[in-house]
Design a protein that fits this description.
The structure is a single chain. The protein has two domains: 5-20 and 42-167, 2-Layer Sandwich (Ribosomal Protein S5, domain 2); 193-355, GHMP kinase, C-terminal domain (Alpha-Beta Plaits), CATH 3.30.70. 39% of the residues lie in helices and 24% in strands. It has helices spanning 5-9, 86-97, 121-137, 143-158, 165-172, 214-229, 240-244, 250-272, 276-292, 299-309, 337-345, and strands at residues 15-24, 36-37, 39-52, 57-62, 70-74, 105-111, 177-182, 187-192, 197-206, 314-320, 326-333, 352-355. The longest helix is centred in the last third of the chain and has 23 residues, at 250-272.
Length: 356
């Protein structure tokens, strides 16, 4: 049962901050390869209420934990526990490593971003917490620096080797326009969706985790492919003939990154040209590449994409997020997204519409 801040900590919060989850329209597994991504925020947000303490104790309560939801630790003693509050510990550790001083605090966390569904619930939490701490302690952090600290928190203490896309999207994106990000230069451009189109998100019902399993393996395979090609990152691999000469499965992994970067650029061009048909086609091409070359899809999501492609109100659909479960992003005709998403979700037991 949820409890207000006053009931949990016997006082009122000093600051309240929030940050959204995100859906990646296209550009999957390209961020840690130095490439391009095209995410946008979703309406669901993580909210952090926070009150400053005069000591080094951090007390936490989460509305999203099945049991009591309480946790605590002392600053400078952060360590990986594989519990939910590692994300908070990661943030305070990253702040200290970057030279930002904070004291203890009480924090109540309540997130509406679906967890483990490829919608960046962890980045939403980290960015919301950093926003609250920035205000409470008057930290000198711009929105990009804040996102980089959120990434550092997950990479180091949590042990999830996420790229920069998720925290950047949570820190900078809105739910009206996509943000086209060059993850190497961190150059950002806002690009609106084509007219007569809107986005739907379908949760497949299959959770995933960026801290374990296939995600880590794909990163290792991409790094190995880059080494064999003699480049720093797969972003720098410009010749498809050299990629095709790689041994399996590195050939297909590198080919996905190569073609996915090209699809992101084509998607931005389609959005600028107000062409939802072209954009939807790129969604479908991206999914085929994730299914066959990067091998991060699952049969349930493949079935949802096939059903989406047959719907007359849908331009295109694809797996979104790290893969091995998670969610489907659907580009639909304006005003038709909800109905189309409900029809598609009926294809797989347990699937449900997240947006709109």
């Amino acid at each position: 049962m949820t409890q207000p801040f006053r009931e949990v900590f016997s006082r009122v919060p000093h600051v309240v901050a929030s940050a959204p989850g995100r859906v990646n329209l296209i550009g999957e597994h390209t961020d840690y390869n130095g490439g391009y991504v095209l995410p946008m925020a979703i309406p669901q947000r993580a909210v952090v209420e926070l009150a400053v303490r005069g000591d080094d104790l951090v007390r936490l309560w989460s509305a999203n934990v099945d049991h009591d939801g309480r946790a605590s630790y002392r600053l400078s003693t952060e360590r990986r526990t594989r519990e939910w509050y590692d994300y908070v510990q990661g943030v305070t550790h990253a702040l200290r490593e970057a030279g930002h001083r904070v004291s203890g605090f009480d924090a109540r966390i309540d997130s509406r971003v679906p967890i483990g569904r490829g919608l960046s619930s962890s980045a939403a939490l980290s960015v919301a917490l950093l926003r609250a701490l920035r205000e409470a302690f008057d930290l000198t952090l711009d929105d990009v620096s804040l996102a980089l600290l959120a990434q550092k928190a997950e990479n180091e203490l949590v042990g999830a080797p996420v790229g920069v896309m998720d925290p950047l999207a949570s820190s900078l994106a809105d739910d009206h326009t996509a943000v086209f990000v060059d993850t190497r230069s961190l150059k950002i451009e806002r690009v609106p969706l084509p007219a007569n189109s809107e986005i739907a998100i379908i949760d497949s019902g299959i959770a995933h985790s960026n801290a374990t399993g296939g995600y880590n393996l794909r990163r290792e395979e991409c790094a190995a492919a880059a080494r064999m090609l003699g480049v720093e990152q797969l972003r720098d691999a410009y010749r498809l003939d050299k990629i095709e000469a790689l041994p399996e499965p590195l050939r297909r992994r590198a080919r996905h990154v190569f073609t996915e970067n090209a699809r992101v650029l084509a998607a931005v061009a389609a959005m600028r040209a107000n062409d939802p048909v072209a954009l939807g086609g790129l969604f479908l091409e991206s999914h085929v590449s994730m299914r066959d070359d990067f091998e991060i899809s699952v049969p349930e999501i493949d079935a949802l994409v096939v059903r989406a492609a047959s719907d007359p109100m849908v331009y295109g659909a694809r797996l979104t997020g790290g893969g091995f479960g998670g969610s489907l992003v659907v580009l639909a005709h304006q005003g038709q997204a909800r109905g189309a998403a409900e029809r598609i979700a009926r294809e797989v037991p347990g699937a449900r519409v997240v947006l709109p």
